[in-house]
Amino acid sequence: MANKRKIAVLLQENVLPKGLKAIELIHFFQTIHPDSLTLEEIQGLLQFSTSQLQQFTEKLSGGQKRLLAFVLCLIGKPSLLFLDEPTAGMDTSTRQRFWQIIQKLKNEGKTIFYTSHYIEEVEHTADRILLLHQGKLIQDTTPYAIRNAHMNKLVTLPIRFLSFVRSLESISQIVEGIETVQFETTQLEKIWPQLQQAGCRITDVEIQNQSLLNILFAMTEEEKQ
Q1: Which ranges form a coiled coil (predicted)?
Q2: Which label site among 20, 105, 183, 197 has the fewest CB atoms less than 10 Å from its CB?
């Protein structure tokens, strides 16, 4: 039983009993966990107003319900959490609060497994990524490792360099705009001296990494082939 109390699960759907106020539900969860968070600690995570704490759970907004369900999972001080689409239904401010709590838990050494379709959240918060495609695990890696393995860079230059860009080797996907020209390359270190010789200054160039979303999408496309 001791180990079970250290595990918490947040389901994708909010399952909060109706007819109870938020504060009543918090008190109930405190009673079933011998070593629970204090009300002050809970409120520090939840940051509900007094009126929100006194509201019946069914009267809370979708984001508030989601945050409350998450904080209820933490009352028993679990060391291992499983979170299924934890930010689904949250507005921007509530989502920001959620990730602040996640960072706090990570700093405390908690282990957190979560599923998400929000790639930007995965990119900025995950230490390890498991990529599933049609129920099959196709990657077990980290955001840093993925980026290092996919060195494709998107380079943007003023349109005056268009003719020179067309003469370059080791580039692809040239896109002409009104004021800029873009291309992709995996040989940026080789190309940069050539750009300098053509009069390109560091202030002229914009360099972007390939987005994690595009990388993961490419991985799933490769798996289909």
Answers
A1: none
A2: 197
pLDDT at 19: 93
Q: Are 128 and 140 in contact, with CB atoms under 8 Å apart?
A: yes
CA distance 18 to 144: 44
Q: Is 140 in a helix, a strand, or coil?
A: strand
Average pLDDT, whole number, for the chain? 87
Name the pLDDT band for 206 (thresholds 50, 70, 90). very high
- CATH number, position 10: 3.40.50.300
Per-residue pLDDT, 1: 38
Buried b (16+ CB within 10 A) or exposed e, 63-92: bbbbbbbbbbbbbbebeebbbebbbbbbee
- Please report whether residue 40 resides in a domain: yes
Beta bridge partners of 180: 158
